[in-house]
């Protein structure tokens, strides 16, 4: 069984990944977190000095930390030839360019959401959008806890991209991310986003296809962060030993 290294091991997702790895019978090689993190903050996971040390000790790494640290983690993964699963949210185009570059020398799987259910939902959204015309309006509604700092969520963007791919258009050309005041009629073919924040919601996502006289709704509700951890571990075990390249959860699910 592959040895999994956890980046951001002291956080909520890091601890959940350690639990999911144990449940899957995998070995956690160690973890890293912010400078100054105490070893006891990682529970039973050994605290290592840095990303390079973690990469050397692991068959695959899982990163749920911060966009600002991504470059260093990719450098460590590429230098050691250690595949890496990236579940960090809030990534910008510059981060994706770094991922593309790293994927030339090491296997990288980047996912906006590692839930198996969400990724199957994205597949269904893409297939539905491909079969319904632009007279069916698409709206994406997502809600997360009050502490989430990015909007729309990475999963909301994933679902928007799935819909745009189904329609063979670029999401940037059709996305409507905010409405206020006198906005005028809804443009045909637009993909709208509505963002809700509050409480402790782990993640609710709904994609609405609204036609004339009928409505189709596809959705997913996360009841626990454990689903993301289980998906991340499944992705890590699948990625370990893969050839260099950029992979997605669709590859893990065979979609």
Helix content: 25-40%
Tell me about the largest β-sheet: 6 strands, parallel
The stretches of 5 or more residues where confidence is low (pLDDT under 50) are none
General form: elongated
Number of strands: 11
**Arithmetic mean pLDDT:** 94
Q: Helix count, per DSSP?
A: 9
What percent of residues are in strands? 15-25%
Output the structural class.
Answer: alpha/beta
Gyration radius, to the nearest Å?
19 Å
- Roughly how many Å apart are the termini? 24 Å
Describe, in plain words, how this protein is organized in 3D.
The chain is of the alpha/beta class and 255 residues long. The protein contains 9 helices and 11 strands. The strands form 2 sheets. A 6-stranded parallel sheet has the order 2-1-3-4-5-11, with helices on both faces. The model has no long low-confidence stretch (mean pLDDT 94).
Key structural traits:
five-stranded mixed sheet, elongated, six-stranded parallel sheet
Task: Give a short overview.
The protein has helices spanning 12-23, 51-57, 70-80, 93-102, 116-131, 154-167, 171-174, 226-239, 249-253, and strands at 3-7, 27-32, 60-63, 84-86, 107-110, 137-144, 175-176, 191-197, 203-211, 214-222, 245-247. It is of the alpha/beta class and 255 residues long.
